[in-house]
Design goal:
Blueprint (H helix, E strand, L loop, with lengths): L7 H11 L1 H6 L13 H4 L1 H12 L4 E5 L8 E7 L2 E7 L5 E5 L14 E2 L3 E2 L6 E2 L5 E3 L24 E7 L2 E5 L7 H4 L1 H6 L8 E11 L3 H8 L5 H4 L3 H4 L9 E3 L2 E7 L19 H4 L1 E7 L3 E6 L2 E11 L2 E11 L1 H5 L4 H28 L16 H15 L2
Bound molecules: FE2/S2 (inorganic) cluster and fe (ii) ion.
């Protein structure tokens, strides 16, 4: 087990939900060990534990800054079961607030929108884009003026949520106590120093609903074993060597491959990161930083895959594609290449989504105990199971 300071209460809860054997099996050597047992994928209690201990305590990707480019753009999103909004302010900054009115607690924003102010749909309390309470109409009787002091740090402003950006990706930390985002993503940043991340531009996103537990998305993401059966056309999209399993370092998994020759690989003909070496121009790298930030970097791309748990057997997935430079991301000249990249991701992802619900359904069989794993391929998957438990029990 990784060395983390543990909260004994949560260790106890994890053991109760997984069973002592189910807990022990994920720490055994891979030859005799086993993945997470069924309750980790199907139990409502386990789901609530993950929402509380993982999605409300660590840095969670909430969207791309470019999804809300203009002042007043608002994106509602649910993180760890908590509705929040990302808001582009008058000053151009992106802020995050809990999506709740301070009066009687109505949800404020239900759809992606643009607003001058945020007015509650119930009794019309109105907030500025900076979250400050601006008006409470009729609060002291019909057409009677209000008594609160606007702009004075009113105690009834929207509840802020800690938010920070990494190259146009907005992360939120509902606990307000996670380590700085820069530390959390340090391994990715270190490993990408050769890539000019200032050049990436958001080109759009794909959304998917998956009838499977969110962890299956990542277990699948970090193993190459399924490529033979599920992605037989992958060699058309991206000729690659998939013989190896990747490695974990701290909170981040990394894998990669080289294309057989330069100019092959994803998005042929699209602009590359400026100044890349020949070696990097013929390489793909992919990462997973716990708990859910999956990132694929190719010479022409920075693509983010994030899964949001909705229920034990239901997940919402977003795939954000960033390309290199404005023209690649939005210009007419690269429209075909861009479309090809989105089509490729859509196809590839749907191939994965065709099997993930089967994993969910299989987990209803009580005789399944977490399985026997391939020492060649499944090591990172077993380590992922340990990291899930680590996140939950960490003090
Ligand atoms: S609940 Fe929002 S104004 Fe009443
Ligand atoms: Fe896959």
């Amino acid at each position: 087990m990784n060395v983390v300071e543990q909260d004994a209460n949560y260790v106890g809860r994890v053991k109760t939900l997984l069973g002592d054997d189910g807990f022990a099996q994920i720490y055994a050597p891979i030859e005799s060990g086993s993945g997470l047992p069924n309750p980790a994928f199907s139990s409502q209690e386990w789901f609530a534990l993950e929402q509380d201990r993982i999605f409300r305590r660590y840095w969670i990707f909430a969207g791309a800054e470019a999804e809300i480019p203009k002042t007043g753009d608002i994106k509602p999103v649910e993180i760890g079961g908590v509705p929040v909004i990302l808001v582009r302010g008058q000053d151009g900054a992106v802020r995050c607030f809990q999506n709740v009115c301070r009066h009687r607690g109505s949800r404020l924003v239900s759809e992606h929108c643009n607003r001058k102010t945020i007015t509650c749909p119930y009794h019309a309390w109105t907030y500025g884009l900076d979250g400050s309470l601006r008006a409470r109409p009729h609060f002291n009787g019909p057409d009677r003026g209000d008594m609160f002091r606007a702009g004075g740090g009113c105690m009834l402003d929207l509840l802020p949520v800690r938010a920070e950006s990494f190259h146009g990706c907005v992360f939120v930390d509902l606990s307000g106590a996670a380590e700085p985002l820069g530390n959390w993503l340090a391994i990715i940043a270190e490993d990408l120093t050769a890539y000019d991340l200032a050049s990436i531009r958001w080109a759009g996103k794909l959304e998917f609903e998956v009838a499977a537990n969110w962890k299956f998305v990542y277990e699948n993401y970090i193993e190459n074993y399924h490529v033979f059966a599920i992605h037989p056309r992958l060699t058309d999209f991206a000729p690659m060597d998939i013989r190896g399993a990747g490695k974990w370092r701290g909170n981040t998994f990394k894998n990669g491959y080289s294309f057989p020759k330069e100019e092959q690989g994803r998005g042929q003909g699209m602009p590359h990161y400026p100044g890349l070496s020949d070696e990097d121009r013929a390489r793909g790298i992919w990462f997973l930083t716990m708990p859910h930030f999956a990132l694929e970097v190719f010479p022409d791309q920075f693509t983010v895959l994030v899964a949001y748990p909705v229920a034990p057997g239901l997940t919402r997935e977003e795939l954000h594609v960033f390309l290199i430079g404005d023209e690649a991301a939005t210009g007419e000249r690269f429209a075909d290449g861009r479309q090809e990249i989105f089509r490729m991701w859509d196809d590839l992802n749907r191939e994965d989504l065709s099997v993930l619900p089967l994993l969910q359904q299989g987990r209803k069989c009580p005789g399944y105990d977490g399985g026997r794993l391939s020492p060649h391929w499944d090591g990172p998957t077993l380590e992922y199971a340990r990291k899930i438990v680590d996140l939950i029990v960490a003090a």
